[in-house]
Specification:
This protein is of the alpha/beta class and about 525 residues long. Helices cover about 25% and strands about 25% of the residues. The chain contains 15 helices and 28 strands. Strands 3-4-11-10-9-6-5-12-24 form a 9-stranded mixed beta sheet. It has a 5-stranded parallel beta sheet with strand order 14-21-15-16-17. The longest helix is centred in the middle third of the chain and has 21 residues. The chain is elongated and about 75 Å long. The protein starts with a helix and ends with a helix. About 40% of the residues are buried.
Length: about 525
């Protein structure tokens, strides 16, 4: 409910959406006979009487327009409901340009349009600094808020509430809700036509909507791809079906719900000792910062809450952290050793192994041993998403979108990429940067300064920035790493400053900085 209030308060300003998805009545007109209608997506449009007729009859089709007037949107009648992809009984040449609702290209005299794909660290840092006096901004994302991922593990056990780690995109960049030609669209990008400067999108579906998702396209002058990455499963059977990831607020909600449900069910009569141990066994896969922080939060939850409120089953609940190598492998050796000792002292069992297969109630390791579980959290890093893999663009080592030192996609014009979905090409002789929030934040800050500089030289329009000097390339300097390990203890690794801290003071510093 807390997250819903955040999303509702932020997104209602951009056109009346509730929660994560817009109501049908907010997007479409509910009166077929009206001569003029208004939509938060498309603005005012006028009814029409064209000869193109869809195969199915619906009173709605007789009133929807091919031109959305002052908002620049146009559509065709066959696209709004489950019959969206049906072909009309006319020649393809007559309707080729009318297949999708369209936010058309900007005209001379209008501000250039920047389309941003994503709502993560990189995208939101870019949007926050974008000068909307000279640019129109369009953000397209299946999530209408930014997630403060470093504190996400704390929401799983109630240390923080969900509303504390989510910020609506329309509050980060108010122009998305207020400016007449800037928008936030709750949708996923499915394809990009680099030659036509258009992105193809599909609206978010189900969850109460009375029609299936439909597609639309948006023209851009400049495109910023910041669509993020996906959790790595390494193709292991059963991971997607039975494990819970920890990358979104909905994941944290699912973990909290399942954890509390298992605690309640374990107290029911008729539960055997073996069933209680299996149900209350929390297994975390991956010894990186996320896995370690979640394990620490779980151990705190057990000591602080479970032993007081679930006295009958307090001796059954356990936490196991499985890692193929050492935990926190990117940290200094001394800090890794401290984390290992501290987690063990807090009751976290550390197991070195590789998962071979995941079943509904157990995992199988490569050595053949079985580990039963009631809650399985998967945190083994991230990799390129299916969307990034599908793009016909040069790739960096590891499969990310390849960019040069100015974060440009070199093979096409007016396209930039940053964050977890982007990496330097080999010819730049730069290493691919880690998928960290500070990398994405720094890239977003650099790129928005570059865009504002381009605008000052009248290079915001499509294909107009070729001869503009871009100045200094992007340079990343790692400032250090932090990780909480529970019991008000944390690690701070500042190896470039030859500093490594552990214990309470780093936790205090970490909390203050966040």
């Amino acid at each position: 409910m807390a997250l819903a209030r955040i999303a509702r308060n932020g997104y209602q300003r951009s056109g009346g959406a509730v929660g994560n998805y817009a109501k049908v009545t907010d997007v479409l007109c509910d009166r077929a006979s009206s001569d003029k209608c208004h939509s938060p997506l498309s603005g005012n449009f006028t009814s029409f009487h064209e000869s193109v007729t869809p195969r199915v009859h619906s009173p709605f089709f007789s009133s929807i327009s091919t031109n959305f007037g002052s908002r620049g949107m146009r559509t065709t009648s066959q696209l709004e409901f489950a019959n969206a992809q049906r072909v009309v009984e006319e020649s393809d040449s007559e309707i080729e340009g009318l297949r999708y609702p369209t936010l058309e290209a900007t005209k001379p005299g209008q501000k250039p349009r920047v389309v941003v794909l994503g709502s993560g660290w990189a995208a939101c840092r870019f949007l926050k600094g974008l000068d909307t006096r000279v640019y129109d901004a369009v953000c397209i994302s299946p999530r209408n808020h930014m997630v403060f991922t470093p504190l996400l593990a704390s929401t799983c056990v109630g240390t923080l509430e969900f509303r504390s780690v989510a910020e609506p995109v329309t509050q980060i960049q108010a122009a998305l809700a207020k400016d007449p030609n800037s928008y936030f669209f709750l949708a996923s990008c499915t394809d990009i036509d680099m030659d036509k400067h258009e992105v193809y999108c599909e609206t978010a579906g189900d969850d109460g909507l009375s029609h299936k998702p439909y597609r639309f396209k948006v023209a851009y002058d400049k495109l910023v791809i910041a669509s993020g990455a996906e959790a790595l499963t390494f193709g292991i059977k059963g991971v997607k079906e039975h494990a819970v990831f920890l990358r979104e607020v909905v994941h944290a909600q699912e973990i909290r719900k399942k954890l509390l449900l298992n605690l309640m069910l374990s107290q029911n009569p008729g539960m055997s000792e073996e069933e209680k141990e299996q149900l209350l066994h929390c297994v975390v896969i991956g010894g990186g910062p996320t896995g370690v922080e979640f394990s620490g939060e779980l151990s705190d939850f057990i000591m602080r809450d479970v032993k007081q409120q679930y006295h009958h089953v307090k001796n059954y609940i356990r936490v196991t952290l499985i890692e193929g190598n050492e935990i926190l492998s990117s940290f200094d050796a001394g800090l890794r050793q401290y984390a290992t000792k501290h987690l063990t002292k807090c009751g976290v069992r550390l197991v070195r192994g590789v998962v071979k297969e995941v079943h509904p109630n157990k995992i199988v390791l490569s050595d053949g041993s079985d580990i039963p579980y009631g809650l399985l959290v998967w945190s083994t890093g991230v990799g390129p998403s299916q969307f990034v893999k599908s793009l016909n663009l040069p790739k960096s080592p590891g499969g990310r979108i390849g960019v040069d030192e100015y974060l440009r996609v070199t093979s096409v014009e007016d396209v930039f990429a940053l964050g977890d979905c982007a990496g330097f090409l080999e010819q730049t002789e730069r290493p691919v940067l880690p998928a960290l929030a500070q990398v994405a934040e720094r890239q977003g800050k650099y790129l928005v300064e570059l865009f504002n500089k381009i605008a000052k030289h009248n290079g915001g329009k499509a294909s107009s920035a070729k001869d503009i000097a871009l100045g200094d390339p992007f340079v990343y300097k790692h400032l250090g790493s932090m990780a909480s390990v529970g019991r008000y203890k944390a690690l701070v690794d500042l190896r470039q400053s030859k500093v490594g801290l552990q214990g309470f003071h780093p936790q205090f510093s970490m909390t203050i900085s966040f």
